[in-house]
Design brief:
single chain, 146 residues, alpha+beta
Length: 146
């Protein structure tokens, strides 16, 4: 599998950051590769929430992915499991730091295709890290603007 991490200190409280990131449909406003996000479950908070995301790869809307919340700690931590052909988990961790919030985003991913999957992920890794960093910069702008 592949591990990718991005981090940014956001000029807002963990409460404020959390209330931004838990608005599912609005995630496409800051997550760079998300064209749209739809909630598939009646519930919208907590473990078990499932969402569908249309992802673009290098600007081309390419594939929809299903994710499921597997851990939900408001103002602290959200863990999503990738439930489509990409496997693994994405984690959003929030830590209060001097009146701001350190947002740590980690992705642990695998593609269940022998050899080719690993190579594809390695090739994609620098793009993904840049995308994650850019998304956190977008989130900062969004939070400041609201």
């Amino acid at each position: 599998g592949m591990h990718v991490e991005a981090m940014r200190d956001l000029a807002a409280s963990p409460e404020r950051v959390w209330s931004s990131i838990e608005r599912w449909e609005e995630q496409s406003r800051w997550i760079r590769d998300a064209v749209w996000v739809r909630v598939l479950t009646p519930e919208r908070v907590g473990a078990g929430v499932r969402i569908r995301v249309l992802n673009r790869v290098v600007h081309v809307p390419l594939f929809t992915e299903q994710l499921e919340v597997v851990e939900w700690q408001p103002r602290h931590r959200m863990v999503m499991a990738h439930r489509s052909f990409v496997r693994g988990t994405g984690t959003w961790s929030l830590e209060p730091v001097d009146g701001s919030t350190r947002f740590i985003w980690t992705e642990e991913l695998s593609l269940p295709i022998p050899l080719l999957g690993e190579l594809a992920l390695l090739a994609y890794r620098p793009f993904l890290r840049r995308l994650m960093r850019g998304s956190l910069a977008n989130l900062q702008r969004l939070i400041v603007a609201t």
